[in-house]
Specification:
Length: about 210
Amino acid sequence: MADFDSWVSMVLQHEGGFVNSAEDRGGMTSRGITRENWSEFIGREATEEDMRNLTEQQAVDFYRDLWEKMNLDRYPPALHLQYADMQVNTGRGGSDMILQMAVNTRANPNEPERWIDVDGIAGRGTISALENANVTPFEYFSESLMFHANNAFVGSKYGFKLRDYLSKKEANPDDQNAWGRTRTSQNGFIRGWHRRDLETYLKATEDD
């Protein structure tokens, strides 16, 4: 189980300082905090000067508030660190989508008809499915790679709605490409590929 101090220390190390990149969908950020989120936290529109001068202690105060709002007790302790970090990296919707797809991939990798919706809202259905799926930190890690890769592809979509999938499948039973954005029969191999690549990477760098 992660504690706040170890988590926030890692986040601040990952995020660095002020960034204002046109390519970053998050827009202007400082210490990993978007201008929009900082404005909400301080109760007014944050200026560029506010963002540039945002101190480490101010960031810690922001992240403590975020940590308390995550309701991490709903999730397996082993996933707390990854889930919380992903909220900073992708927002709550992204962290929940990764969790939902990790449940699907763990429990029914090649049976979309049995999947829960991947909609970025971890409600009762997600929590219930999570309790029975035994999602490990590696499963969450593996799906996080898929989530980030998806963001780099044009026209790709990570989400999944079961009702839409079944409707399209019924209308076009012989054309899998028309069933909506989901995964192929290779989905069951993803975790194995990721594990092998990770182990190979660690082996290749163990003497560095």
